[in-house]
Every structure is written in C-alpha cells, then in structure tokens.
Amino acid sequence: MKRCSKIIGTGGYLPETVRTNDDISKLVDTNDEWIFERTGIKTRRIAGPNESAASMSEIAARQAIKAAGIEAGEIDLIIVATGTPDRVYPSTACMLQHRLEIQNCVSFDIQAACSGSIFALSIADQYIKSGAADKVLVVGAELCSRLVDWTDRGTCILFGDGAGAVLLDSSDEFGILSTHIHSDGAFEDLLYCPNPQVATEENKAEKGFITMKGNEVFKVAVNTLGRIVDETLSANSLEKSDIDWLVPHQANTRIIAATARKLKMSMDQVILTLENQGNTSSASVLLALNEGVRDGRIERGQLILLEAFGAGFTWGSALIKY
Ligand code: ACO
Prior knowledge:
alpha/beta, Peroxisomal Thiolase, Chain A, domain 1, 5-stranded mixed sheet, binds acetyl coenzyme *A
C-alpha cells in the first residue's frame, strides 16, 4: 500500500453559551418554527468575550493530541482554517504553535470559508503523501458570531462558534483515499464578508458583516455538492452503497438531505450536528467528525465521505478509510 494520511486523533470545542431560536426571535422578526423548518437549527454556541480562534483551537488541538497518544512536539505541520483569525498576522496557526509549546514545526493559516477544513485536509494529505511531513495537525476554528449582523434575519439565524481538530500521521495501512477541491470566484456577490479596514474607496461604506443571498447560494450548493459526490466516487471506482458515513458541512439540513438522497443514504448514516451547533463554517466538518468518532458511530475500516461548500465559491470532498 502506498503512503497515506491516517487519522490518529480528533478533538472539538464548543463555547459554553447557548443561543436559542427563541433568543434570536427577540432580536429580529423570526421564530423557532421557521428557523427549524427551513434550516434544521435549534441552538448555536456563542464564544465568550475572552475567547478567540486561537484559544478555541488550542482546546480542540489538545484533545486531538491526547486521543492520538503523541507529544505535541512530534507535530511537523499545523494548518488552521479560519475566516476569523485573532490577528491579521501572525497567523492563528503560529499562535496555536506557541500555545502548544512547539518550537520547531511549520504553521500557517488557510482561508476557504466553509470549505476550509476540506481544503486544509487536502493540503495536509499532499504534504504527507509526498513525504514532506509525517504528523500534521489540521484545525478549523471560527467566531462566526462576531461576523454576523444580529439585525439581519437572513444570516444571524444560521451561524455558531467552535473549533474542530484532527491529527494525521503517515501510514501504509489506510487513511485519506482522495481529496477533491474546487473554487469559482465568479459568485462573490452571493456571499461575502467585507474587511472595512482595508477596503477601497468604493467599498469602504460596507460593514464587516456576512452578506448572503441565501436562496441563490442554496441552489448552487445543492447542485455542486451533488457533482462532488459523483467526482469522488468515480475517482475511487466506488459505488454509492460503499460509503458508510456522510460527514457534511453543516449549513442547512435541506442541503445535507439532498446530498444524502444523491448517495441513496438514509439520514441515519449522516453525522448531523447542525441542530445544536448551527453553521460553524470551517469548524463544522471537523466537529462532526469528532462527534462521530467519539460516540463510536464511526469505526475503524469504514468509508467516510466528508464534503463542504462555502464562500468563494469553494467546495470539496475527502474520502477517508477511517
Ligand atoms: N425568519 C422568518 N422569515 C424569514 C427569515 C427568518 N429568519 N429569513 C427569511 N425569511 C423570509 C424571507 O423574507 C422570505 O419571505 P417572502 O417570501 O415574504 O419574501 C421567505 O422567508 C423565504 O426566504 P428565502 O431566503 O427564500 O428562504 P430560504 O428557504 O432560502 O431559507 C436560508 C433561507 C436558510 C438562508 C437558506 O437559503 C440557506 O440555508 N442558504 C444556504 C446557506 C449556505 O449554505 N451558505 C454557504 C455556507 S456559509 C459560508 O461559506 C460563510
């Protein structure tokens, strides 16, 4: 068997504060019934005033390191996917490296919005497969609550905060079978978050909030995720029935159900965290993976399909023999 990237540990962190649909209905004109029916979300977690992408990453990463049974100092590479870094620079990955007291490894952030964890896994896999790294820590961490306009009912109902982590090690046994990542920058207007401090004259009136044409994004997401399922199965000469678990990005139950239908999978084969976490952007796939591994649903040797879609547009998948 050729060298591949095996998952040796997972971790996750969710902030303590729970914000319910009823809480949000006191801020904007909405209600629990509408939100749950249209999105599948009931509650989401909101980070405390002293929490950050780096602090949440540290907790998730330490859990993954412990589960893997390795020392932090053995890690060769740290990749953090985030759209809410603590600072413009240094990267959140460098800050995490320092928090983990690792003197000598390579650390960098990547930004692919909600597809960030899949993009980071893909990069990690290339490093491991090429022999450039053995142990790679991948983290997705997001403070979506601070990018949300809490007066916009089209977006504030959707997002939550959290961090997920996975530790990969080189293996000749099994692991990531393939990753497939894509981008198309033509859809910027449908989903973006301005950065007012560095805006051009033309854009400087824009506020730094997530801006989304939800129903248009929805349609593209459903079609695109259907295509990525076909691409992934065909690249591995597999049938739909070979997949044991779908671990999707948690944006909307209706989008996830469409992908499950495409795979002819029952929703019992889908790891769903959306109801109590909302959309945690680049953290969501890793948080769901962590949940499925820790509660024993995902077992060694099973085939799991991870997928995500987000701003950019970006989208991707990872097929893993766990
Ligand atoms: N409460 C009550 N009514 C609402 C709310 C709300 N929170 N939001 C919108 N509505 C109303 C609208 O005003 C509209 O009313 P109208 O018919 O009188 O005009 C009606 O509900 C339907 O609005 P839509 O926007 O068409 O609602 P939709 O069913 O599409 O649901 C949602 C909106 C949940 C945002 C959905 O479109 C969605 O999930 N989109 C995809 C999000 C996504 O996947 N994003 C990518 C990842 S995020 C990232 O990368 C950062």
